[in-house]
Structure formats: C-alpha cells, structure tokens
C-alpha cells in the first residue's frame, strides 16, 4: 500500500493527540518526538494545527463519532483518534473530505480501517457539522461556571472558536506605525492570523508579542529608574523586556535553559538588557534584596487555553492543588528578597482561584508585614477588574475586541 501524500503529518497529529490525552504532555513538549518524521517546518506546523484544533473541538468531535457508532468506542481507541483527525480536517480546517479520509486510513491499516471509513462516510453523507461555538470539556465548563458564573464559561467557549488576535507590546512612547486597536498605552492589537515575520519593526526589535493581559503584571511595578527588579520565572522574557524598558535594573531568573535561550534572543533583538540567571528559584538566593519583585509563577496555564487548548484536557484538579502548593512556597521565598518599602507582584496565567486568590489570601494571613496594594484609579483601563486589591482577567474581558488571556495578579507592599 502506498502512503498517500500527507499521511506523515496526520500520523504526527495523531501522536500529538495521544501525547496530550493519554500521557498528559503539553503540545509543544510533545512536538519534537511526535513530528520526528517531518522535515519541513510547514508540515510540522500543519500537524500541530490539526492536533490543536482537534483539542479545541474534542467534545463535539467525540459526540459526532458516538452518534455514528452503535457500540461506544473507548476513549483511547485507535479508531477514535483516527476519526478525530479525519473529522477535524473535513469539518474545521477545510481539507476536502476525500483527502481527509485518504490520508488517515493508512494510519489504521491492519486495524479498524472499515470502521473508520464507515463512520466518516456516514457523517459526511449526513452533512454533519460542528457547532459554531465549541463545547468545553464538561469538567472544565462546570468548574469555570461554578467559580465564575455561566457567562464566563460561555465567553470562554466563544473565544475558543476563533484564533486570538496578535497583541504587540512596545516601550513607552515608541508606538509602531501600524493600523490596530490600542487597549492600553504600550499596546497595539492586530487581527488574528497576522504573520509576525512580515511586520515592520520586528527585526529591529521595536516591539514584541505579548497578550494584553500578560502585560499587566509588569505595569503594576511602575517606573523603574534607579530601582532594581527581580523577575522570577522570567523566560521567555515578555515581562523582563517590559521591566527593562521601564528603566529597572533587572535580574531575570529561570530554571529552563532552553526558555532562557529564547529570553536571550528577545533581549538581543529589542536591544534591552537584563542580568540573566539560570537557576531554580527554590534553591537560588539573590545577592541583595530588591526594590521590586515580579513572580510569574509556574501554573496550570488554564488562562491561555486559546493558544494552548491542551490545558482543557490535561489539567486535572489534583494538579491544580499541587501547583498551588508550589506557588505558595515560591511566593513565601520571594517575599524574603524584597526591601522594606518595596513592591512585589505575583501573577499566574490561570483561571483557577486555587492558584490565585487562595494563594495570596494565605500569604497575607501568614505575613503581617505585607499588605495588598489595590490598583489606583486610572492606573489600568476601567474594563479591567481590580476589586479587593487583586486583578482578575476573565474570558469575558474585551470579548468584542478579541478577548484577553486569563490572569490573576496581586500587588503587595512590604511595610
Ligand atoms: C509562566 S512561565 C513565565 C513567563 C515569563 N514570565 C514571561 O513573561 O515571558 C513560568 C516559567 O517558570 C519557570 N520555572 C518553573 N519552575 C521554576 C523554578 N523552580 N525556578 C525558576 N524557574 C522556574 C519555567 O521554566 C517557565 O519559564
């Protein structure tokens, strides 16, 4: 049997789905192994796009598959994986149906080929389609509805249906000359699918890509002239660049050498500078206390579900609890490195209160020498909720403008 052109990228997409759904890996981390047979960057990109779109649409794809099979296929059945990849191509990516199935059937050779062909064919004859607004996995939808209300869960599902816009961040007073929407000073939003490489000013380092919500933590540390800042868990460096551009003398610390390499490239491209330290924050000590600290702690990343749809499937409640323990320990350690009178910002790109509100409430209970510093009037746009001293960006924020990532951000002063 010949291998129809394009089967290798479908095989890589199936391996990616398997890595996320059965092994609990992040998509990016699985890509090298899953796409090892693909030499061309665009084939790897296509494999990634198919897997990511299948993860955005998984409950709806599975409902279609179940509607067309008499006996329910197990979650991990090879036929289900193959059908997810064939259907997502035909129903979401725009691959013609005959090509979608012809490229997937060789992947089930000697196995459930007839079943896959039969189910796919039946769904195509019925003119099956996917709903305009994707269905969130029930565990996630229920949790977000319980924590934030039905409107937020609905907004999250709506955001999942469209690729996020491209947000640019730039130093004060250096706005790029491009058509776009500015939601805050130092921010410009361009339409989804804008290609970064073709935009003026990228090579010259006049701006960098950073979601508008991700730019809030560094903003809350204010101007940096004459002040030192520790950027803890800094790579790939979006917030390091903001702090350096605001005038801080920045020390950027991260445990990942590969992510720090990207931070180094980002600094070199933008001409901004920071002292870069490869270290585990739980083992490292700064040489001196700092005026400002930004701790962008490792988290479930459920707030960036649009760009990383695997978090909808791989992050379980137990992992959230374990991450929260690590975040509390990191925050307690970082707090010891702040000068009296200094400012500490804690942030996570998570939509789970266990990693946000609950971590900082415990911290404030334990540290009477720290107090929350609420967002001052005019400091952030009115739309950004800054009640009770904390900032919480939820999926409904700027929905009509293309949304924003989910973040929790708290600012403290050491008295
Ligand atoms: C949310 S990301 C940081 C994003 C970054 N602040 C930015 O704006 O580009 C979390 C980072 O924490 C780092 N990390 C995780 N555990 C760490 C530890 N124990 N010590 C230092 N860095 C750690 C990871 O390598 C990852 O780069």
Describe it.
With 415 residues, the protein is α/β, with parallel strands linked by helices. The protein has 15 helices and 11 strands. The protein starts with 6 loop residues before the first helix and ends with a strand. The model has no long low-confidence stretch (mean pLDDT 95). S-adenosylmethionine binds next to α11 and β5.
Provide the descriptors you would attach to this structure in a database record.
415 residues; alpha/beta; eight-stranded mixed sheet; three-stranded antiparallel sheet; 11 strands; 40% helix; 14% strand; binds S-adenosylmethionine
Number of distinct helices: 15
Q: What pattern of helices and strands is seen along the backbone?
A: HHHHHHHHHEEEHEHEHEEHHEHEEE
| General form | elongated
- Which percent bin holds the helix content? 25-40%
* Total E-strand runs: 11
Round the Cα radius of gyration to an integer and report it.
23 Å
Oligomer category = single chain
| Estimated share of beta-strand residues | 5-15%
The pLDDT mean sits at 95
Q: Distance between the terminal alpha carbons, to the nearest Å?
A: 73 Å
Largest sheet: 8 strands, mixed
Bound molecules: S-adenosylmethionine
What structural class is derived from the secondary structure elements?
alpha/beta
Low-confidence stretches: none
What's the quick description here?
By secondary structure, the chain is of the alpha/beta class. It is built from 15 helices and 11 strands. 40% of the residues lie in helices and 14% in strands.
């Amino acid at each position: 049997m010949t291998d129809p052109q394009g089967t290798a990228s479908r095989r890589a997409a199936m391996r990616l789905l398997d890595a996320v759904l059965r092994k609990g890996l992040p998509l990016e981390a699985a890509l090298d192994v899953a796409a090892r047979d693909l030499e061309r960057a665009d084939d790897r990109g296509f494999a990634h796009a198919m897997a990511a779109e299948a993860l955005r649409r998984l409950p709806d794809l599975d409902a279609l598959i179940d509607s067309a099979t008499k006996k329910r296929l197990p979650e991990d059945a090879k036929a289900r994986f193959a059908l997810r990849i064939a259907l997502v191509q035909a129903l979401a990516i725009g691959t013609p149906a005959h090509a979608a199935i012809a490229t997937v059937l060789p992947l089930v050779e000697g196995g459930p080929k007839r079943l896959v062909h039969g189910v796919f064919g039946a769904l195509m004859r019925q003119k099956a389609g996917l709903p305009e607004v994707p269905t969130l996995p029930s565990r996630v939808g229920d949790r977000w509805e319980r924590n934030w209300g039905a409107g937020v869960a609905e907004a999250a599902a709506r955001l999942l249906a469209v690729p996020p816009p491209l947000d640019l961040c730039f130093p004060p007073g250096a706005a790029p000359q491009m058509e776009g929407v500015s939601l805050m000073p130092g921010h410009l939003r361009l339409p989804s699918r804008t290609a970064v490489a073709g935009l003026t000013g990228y090579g010259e380092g006049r701006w960098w890509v950073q979601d508008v919500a991700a730019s809030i933590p560094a903003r809350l540390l204010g101007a940096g002239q004459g002040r030192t800042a520790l950027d803890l868990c800094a790579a790939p460096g979006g917030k390091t660049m903001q702090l350096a551009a605001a005038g801080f003398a920045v020390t950027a610390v991260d445990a990942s050498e590969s992510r720090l390499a990207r931070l180094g490239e980002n600094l070199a491209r933008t001409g901004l500078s920071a002292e870069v330290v490869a270290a585990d924050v739980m083992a490292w000590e700064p040489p001196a206390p700092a005026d400002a600290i930004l701790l962008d702690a490792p988290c479930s990343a459920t707030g960036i579900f649009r760009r990383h749809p695997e978090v909808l499937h791989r992050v379980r409640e137990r992992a959230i609890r374990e991450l929260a323990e690590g975040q509390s320990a990191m925050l307690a350690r970082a707090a010891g490195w702040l000068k009296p009178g200094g400012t500490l910002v804690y942030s996570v790109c998570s939509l789970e209160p266990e990693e946000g509100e609950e971590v900082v409430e415990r911290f404030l209970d334990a540290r009477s020498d720290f107090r929350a510093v609420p967002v001052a009037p005019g400091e952030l746009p009115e739309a950004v909720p800054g009640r009770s001293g904390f900032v919480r960006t939820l999926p409904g924020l700027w929905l009509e403008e293309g949304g924003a990532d989910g973040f929790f951000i708290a600012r403290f002063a050491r008295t």
